[in-house]
Amino acid sequence: MLKLVLGGSGSGKTTLLYSRIRARAEAGRYSILLVPEQFTSSTEGRIYRELGDALSGMVESFSFTSLAERILSAEGGAAVQTLSDAGRAVLVRRALEELQDNVHYYYRHRRSAAFCQMAAQTIDELKSAGLSGTQLAELARDCGPESGKLSELALIFQGYETLLAGTGMDPSDRLELAAARLEAALARGELPDFLREREVFIDEFDTFNAPKKRLMGAMLAALPTVTVALCDDGSPMVPGEMGLFSGAKQVAAQLRQLARKNGAEAAVPELLRTDLRHRDAPGLAAVTELLETGTCEVPPAAPEVRLFAAASREEEARCTAAAIHRLMRQGVRCGKIAVVCRDIAGYRAAIRYEFRMADIPLYCDEPTTPEFSAPATAVRALLALVRGADMTENLTVLAKTGLCALSEPEVCALENYAYTWSPDAAAWRTGFEKSPRGFGENELTDEDRKTLADAEKARQLLVTAVDSLRGRVRGANAEQISRALYFCLKELGAEEQQAAQIESIRAARGIPAAEEAAREWNVVMQLLDEMAHLLGGQGVTLAEYEDCSACCCARRTLGTSRRRWTRWCWQAPAKCVWMRRTMYLCWALRKGSSPVRRPRRAF
């Protein structure tokens, strides 16, 4: 049976679900709570707070992804490797190479990382809608003038699926496979042990894609009750409505249809109308009413709420900056002020401009990718060097990543020598013998000799490793390039340096920062593994490999970084006169909360 719990934000939907879960736990019955991926950690904490030690073991919390993995581990299929977002882009490029003359419109873009990334995103959206390459090809025939391009996209999609069958599994396919396994078990009259006599509660979702709907359909057919909480005011759905709750109304209608399709009953929705969250805060209650209905009356008990009708986003940002400036003059700290908007992408430019004009510091959390981390920068510098790029620039960048077995005086000596004498490729391959202080200095002091020895030691380490790498990648395929890059980093001492950095960060800044440092290295090593796994023995040029690896780095997300840390990095002191140019390569922007993991080893 499908049970829907409807109500606006703060009406007590989640509290009602937890009360029912607790009642089942007290009766000795187990439950399953499904929440989005980003809420799994906080949900575990709330389960413990709500149910305590004795009862919290009676409920299991899952996301759809972890639930699918649990089903696959019980019914078979969990061992298949899952493709990441970065791997999708690489596999699209490989599909284009395999198709050759069968693709006319898009073949010339096969070496464009941006196109492969966009095509991978399109395939991901098509899979989320439940379409396969064959279905897209059938739909493309009736699309008129655009049928040619759409047919080629379907051909790329089919090629992607063919290659995927031999290398791994798309993340959305794991949900489909889990649903298929659950349907097969139901057909046999069996269920995995962890699902028997369970009631499922689903919270915090506002939409479900096609793979999730199929898995939900299997659960509706297999389990006695599935309760879903949706943020909906309960009013009837009007065709073509585009209000605040229109999406939730459509989801509710789709769930009722899904229940009927799978032979389950749909109970009358339970509607919660009282705003429990803001019953002691009339100002926030008025704001909630404004967001839900578009109008509100500010009560006399909430003078802190001010409404302002702006003509544009720029005017909104200007008014916000003026209000914050007024609070700052009253002594309110900037850390106590927050700016909230529904879509930051539409307001970011206006807010930054107005805040800069008003001299208001802005700290903004934004997702970061590993493409500018020290391990990724080291890989890019090595690829540039073996392609014949400028040795001075790339060798100094490689040295300053902090992943080479060099001390800070040695790195500074190398960069200062390179800046003073500007050595060419031939000079880099011969010993450094000139005065570190430049022309006119014939007699070397003891300090000069020590500086020269440090620069020479750094030169020997870097040039020897790069020349060895150049010999290994000449005529190599993608797997051999990945392997050669890893062993070159190992020869430079990157693993030991990374481990030492993690330990020093843990001692100075704690486990979360050290975890983030380990994650940067692990992500880049995983990308090398993924490039070797997906491209395999396929012949690629170094430029193509670099383009694909850059696309992979741009598709992976590490977490969030704050602008204020970026400012602090640029102000960090350095002994070398030119060290500040790339200091961001050595000072990590890290944030995390889990225990420190050991650095990953490629291959």
Q: Number of DSSP helices? A: 23
- From the alpha-carbon coordinates, what is the Rg to the nearest angstrom? 29 Å
Mean pLDDT rating = 82
Strand order of the largest sheet: 3-2-4-5-1-6
Main beta sheet: 6 strands, parallel
Uncertain segments: 560-598
Task: Output the structural class.
Answer: mainly alpha
Q: So what's the overall shape?
A: globular
Q: What percentage of amino acids are in beta strands?
A: 5-15%
Gap between N and C termini: 49 Å
Helix content: 55-70%
List how many beta strands DSSP finds. 8
What does this structure look like?
It is a single chain. The chain is mainly alpha-helical and 603 residues long. Helices cover 56% and strands 6% of the residues. The chain is built from 23 helices and eight strands. It has a six-stranded parallel sheet, with helices on both faces. Strand 4, helix 9 and strand 5 (226-231) form a beta-alpha-beta unit. Helix 4 crosses helix 5 (113-128), helix 16 (408-421) crosses helix 18 (446-473) and helix 21 crosses helix 22 (542-555). The longest helix is centred in the C-terminal third of the chain and has 28 residues, at 446-473. The protein is globular.
